[in-house]
Design brief:
single chain; 275 residues; alpha/beta; Spore Coat Polysaccharide Biosynthesis Protein SpsA, Chain A
Length: 275
């Protein structure tokens, strides 16, 4: 009898082809590992390319790192830059899986990552979304699970000078859940990062995927809150990834504008918290 099916979406926009190739290779290895453990019957991966036609060869070249024995992979393109959430939603009607992974093109999964995350979903029926332990290039832990933000803490974390931020370390640490994110499972995480979200597909589909009103930033926080109303968002430290991404403020003014616009939309929907 066939086992559970896994689907995944990776949204790209003019990606670094080397990073994308590493992301796909790591996903293939992790999917093979989970398949060998009997967690899944294979993976079906959609690379949803929001970029222009000129960047398509880079995306196609990265697909050479995929291992066919891990499952199937295809590119979805030609729709233009519709935003992160809307791009993920493009394949909502094509999933047909039990579990669905939302993953960034700048992350690498450790071989046991999917096995551990899928095991947690199998052992805990209340879990609807699993967030992993995240580490940077330097091996330092990144605290991507969050508590509900205030406008003040977002300013401190993203835009305040270092000498200001140092005076409010406790405020930022509390937002980043540094008091609980370590080597134990944490249930009831308020906000998970969209760089890696493993969800029950039926729940993801029932919620309508990501809210398309968010072009970029905060769509993952919005989804986390909506998942949290129906199921448990859990941090599973045995599921480990490396994240090569950075903050919006370091990516230029266009990203800052998107961040601010999405923050305003997020607070308008879910409630303002100033400090």
């Amino acid at each position: 009898m066939p086992g559970p099916r896994l689907t995944a979406t990776i949204v790209t926009y003019r990606p670094d082809p080397r990073l994308l190739a590493r992301a796909l290779a790591s996903l293939a290895v992790a999917a093979k590992h989970a398949r060998s453990a009997g967690r899944i019957d294979g993976a079906r991966v959609f690379v949803v390319d929001n970029g222009p036609a000129a960047s398509r060869p880079d995306v196609e070249a990265a697909l050479a790192s995929w291992l066919p024995e891990a499952g199937t992979i295809e590119i979805v393109s030609g729709h233009g830059n519709v935003g992160y959430g809307r791009a993920n939603n493009l394949v909502l009607g094509r999933l047909g899986s039990e579990f669905h992974l939302v993953m960034n093109p700048d992350v690498e999964l450790e071989p046991e990552c999917l096995d551990a995350a899928l095991a947690a979903l199998g052992e805990h029926p209340a879990f609807g979304l699993v967030a992993p332990a995240v580490f940077g290039d330097d091996g330092a832990r990144q605290y991507l699970c969050k508590r509900y933000p205030s406008v003040w803490v977002l300013f401190l974390r993203g835009f305040a000078p270092d000498f200001v931020r140092r005076h409010f370390t406790r405020t930022v640490d509390a937002y980043e859940m540094r008091d609980v994110i370590a080597d134990r499972v944490v249930e009831g995480v308020p906000l998970a990062s969209g760089c890696f979200m493993l969800l029950r597909t039926a729940l993801f589909e029932r919620l309508g995927g990501f809210d398309p009103r968010f072009f970029l930033y905060f769509e993952d926080y919005d989804l986390s809150l909506r998942v949290g109303r129906e199921a448990t968002v859990a941090y599973v430290p045995q599921a480990r990834i490396v994240h090569h991404g950075g903050q919006a403020a370091r990516k230029g003014w266009r990203h800052v504008a998107w961040f601010l616009r999405s923050a305003r939309r997020f607070f308008s929907i879910h409630g303002w918290k100033l400090a």
